[in-house]
Amino acid sequence: MNANQLAEFGARHIARGIGRVSNLVIDKAKGSWLWTVEGKKYLDFTTGIGVTSTGHCHPKVVKAVQEQAAKLNHAQVNIFYHKPMLDLIEKLKAVMPSSKLDTFFFWNSGAEAVEAAVKLARHSTKKQNIIVFQGSYHGRTIGTMSLTTSKTIYKANYGPLMPGVYVAPYPYCFNCPIYKKLPDKYNINNCCNDPIDQIEILLKQQTAPQETAAMLIEPILGEGGYVSPPNNFYKELKKLCEKNDILLITDEVQCGYGRTGKMFAIEHFGVVPDIMVMAKGIASGFPLSGIVSRKELMDKQPPGSMGGTYAGNVVSCAAAIATLEVFEEENLLRNVDLRSSQILSLLDKKLKPLLPPQVNLDIRGLGLMIGIEFKGVPYGFASEVAKESLEKQDLIILTTSIYETIRLIPALNITEEEVVIGIKKLCKAVEMVVKRLP
């Protein structure tokens, strides 16, 4: 079958509920580049939605997987220990935000890990309710759909969902009504503190502290728009949790593992969570997720209450060990800082001049988790930019949130030259879409 026939076959036989940004049939990938079955080459600024952080098919990760698969490829976690998991824990302990986060549970996907965190919070506190934040994305299982608020498409018509979930505002300064009215007084560097005030009201009106097990939050909003909070937000949130005996869970599935220039995004804000969730970039494309917490919390769960057939798969753990070794050997966090500064500078110089004066542009993000929001453009503008990038510039990018926002998620080892190529392609796509504006 040729590429079109393969795509048509997929459309007939793969569940329609899977959203897809292209009909490309990918044959191979290396670093920041993808090739289709027809041999066409694309620059990838999506990394599988933040998964292949060391680039596609990093040779060190590939070698580790090949060697492990030939030695042992399944050691069921409820039956055995296996050495790759134990070695991975030893390496992970060294990069945790705090030495207090010392006990791990591994699963397969981000959604499963979020559910594991909720199970731990409910069981250890003997309380039920969970507070989540507006714009959050935590998964698409029944439980995590209940916690997700970034878009209605993820959970519409799938109810009834898990009860005991309450939603608080996330500090989104670019779309904050207080900022809009008083932009000279309040901004990301001087928060109005309204989100914290609203959480206190929530605890008085909707879910009492004695019923609230945890607050679950993405340190940087992912599907909600790649939004960073004001610097003081997390310290105030942590104080509120401690005051009310509520656990703080950080969902680092998309923003963790070096994506923001630190191993975990919460480190930017000087706060240590009670439970931390990780997945995506943890194993460079192999299915692995996990939670980490304090031993005294984890030890409250009875043996048998946690587990799973493929939980902490031995091959995925080998890939995760190799991933951490790549971080160390190639100094990826340093590269993230360098390439982040480069991208932000190029966008400021090259992108802004392309837009008409009525368009308000917000370029934001930490590290290589960069959002570009356009305000004052027609609905669908960001999607048109992504489509133009794909079809005319051979650049793969994604949109995010309910607003007109592009997100850039390149590999953490992307080169200076690849950044220049990618931003040039993006700017050309924006220029062409702007020319078609009414």
From TrEMBL:
Protein's recorded name: Acetylornithine transaminase
Family of the protein in this entry: Belongs to the class-III pyridoxal-phosphate-dependent aminotransferase family.
Domain of life from the UniProt record: Eukaryota
Keywords: Aminotransferase, Pyridoxal phosphate, Transferase
Family annotation (Gene3D superfamilies): Aspartate Aminotransferase, domain 1 (3.90.1150.10), Type I PLP-dependent aspartate aminotransferase-like (Major domain) (3.40.640.10)
GO molecular function terms attached to this record: identical protein binding; pyridoxal phosphate binding; transaminase activity
UniProt-listed InterPro entries: Aminotrans_3, Aminotrans_3_PPA_site, Class-III_PLP-dep_AT, PyrdxlP-dep_Trfase, PyrdxlP-dep_Trfase_major, PyrdxlP-dep_Trfase_small
Organism field: Diversispora epigaea
Cofactor(s) listed: pyridoxal 5'-phosphate
